[in-house]
Sequence to fold (219 residues):
Amino acid sequence: MKKTALACFASILSHSAMADEYLTFFMAGQSNMDGYGYVSELPNDLVKEQDVMIFHGNGVFDNQDNGGVGKWGKLKPGHGTGFKSDGRSNTLSERFGAELTFAKTIQQQYPNRKIAIIKYAVGGTGLALNTGYSNWYPNFTKGNGFNQYDFALETINNAYAVSDINGDGKSDTLKPMGIIWMQGEADAHASEASANAYFDNLTSLMNLFRAALRVDGCL
Fold:
């Protein structure tokens, strides 16, 4: 494996009496996760800012610059396609993704807990090598060797590198709770081989993401 998932987060993830613990969910995939719904068409209950923190990694195609950079902020509409971040500020778009209703539902499931979302998604991307406009294949070597898998890991890495995600002056703890993945169309349409390999490829990718999100020491 040419990639190393993530560095040790022991100092970031250490618990303290002052730390706020955030139940953390990683959302990733292609267009349906990126989000193409128009903010202007949202119902009133989803337009307002939610009491959920989000780190949305800047989405780019393979071998481009600034993939995965982002900045923690409160969740509000605008984290769909067209969202941009330079790591210092976020530029919301006119679109939204699954994060809005997901966050609202999770808050109902955990009404007394703090919730955080880490998101990285790019439309039209595939999982098998040579599928989609860009792909998530972990052993990708084309160009400078950085693809969606790398940028997703960069997103996670950058999110965890911030010890105080809500800016209240206290260290926060991110507790991984789940991975939400929406992708597969590119592999289904590219070829019979990529479609048949999808189960094994997805299983491998999810295992890598679980390792990247682990909290029990260095990888």
